[in-house]
Amino acid sequence: MTANPARPAEPAASGRRPLIAGNWKMWGTRAEARQYCSRLLGFLPDASRRPADVGVCGPFTALDVLVEELRDAEVLVAAQNMHAEETGAFTGEVSAPMLAELGVQGVVLGHSERREYDNESDRALQEKVAAALAAGLQPILCVGESEEEHEAGDTQRKLRHQVQEGLAKVPDEQLPVVAIAYEPIWAIGTGLTATPEQAQTAIAFIRALVGDRSKERAERVRILYGGSVKPDNAPEILAQPDVDGALVGGASLDPAGLARIATAVPER
Ligand code: PGA
After folding, report:
1. Is there a catalytic annotation at residue 165?
2. Across the chain, what does the average pLDDT equal?
3. What is the mean pLDDT of residues 43-52?
């Protein structure tokens, strides 16, 4: 398997560079994607002056447009799903090497909407995370508890299962290439946000879980928060010591909003 030359550099051992990624979900024709990019670039400072990496997770049909428009500006382009196999009789599916060939750098895996509507299991995700890495893509593995689990005090049990299963086929040395997004399901698209303390506690717990594999590498894994992040609540959440950025749904459809969130990241 050839390495994807477009893959972003692994975060330096000395510190984790935050990542602010917009998840468009099922939004964005090619024409809309082109317009979005030119507006986003108008709002973003130059890459060297950004306090965080910025990414856009678009639909398959617009990914090549995103790569073309955003590559020179050093904005990461990610898909929202892929199949674990490289090729085969899987009608309607897209594989990791197909994405890498387009110049796509990352892929969201295990978003709660896919877990719910497409029955994505932790076991299947385990294969997808490994396949993404093998193709040189940065996986953004989503985990998070439902409202019932949250209320029953089951958050840690759920996170332990999802993180351990999701990372089971990742060799230790590749752990820092994986980004994890903690997205409590009760906060996605609901306008309810975890408090900064809840986000910090859950994300520190996830880091400790990765630390059970390798303490040193866990310090280099980026762990994002997702769930109703908006320009006005982002600064407090992003100021938490373990929160390494955000996966932003609804608010990212406004490029000015995504740029505001990306520039709200405190310098580390
Ligand atoms: P939201 O979505 O920001 O609209 O809550 C987040 C996500 O689903 O990644």
Report:
1. no
2. 94
3. 96
Best CA proximity match to 59, nearest among 39, 31, 87: 31
| 111 a catalytic residue | yes
Q: Model pTM?
A: 0.94
The CA 24 to ligand 1 mean position distance, Å, reads 9
Of the candidates 111, 186, 121, 101, the one whose C-alpha atom is nearest the C-alpha of residue 141 is 111
Joined together, the tokens standing for residue 41 give: 């670039």
Q: Strand 245-248 and strand 19-23: pairing?
A: parallel
pLDDT at res. 44 = 97
- Residues 80 and 116: their CA atoms lie apart, in Å, by 15
Distance from the alpha carbon of residue 247 to the mean position of ligand 1, in angstroms: 7
User: Which of 69, 111, 113, 165 is the catalytic position?
Assistant: 111
pLDDT of 102-112, one tens digit each? 999 999 999 99
Q: Is the CB of 247 under 6 A from ligand 1?
A: yes
Cα separations in angstroms, 234 against 165, 210, 259: 29, 25, 11
Q: For residues 237 and 224, what is the distance between their CA atoms, to the nearest angstrom?
A: 10
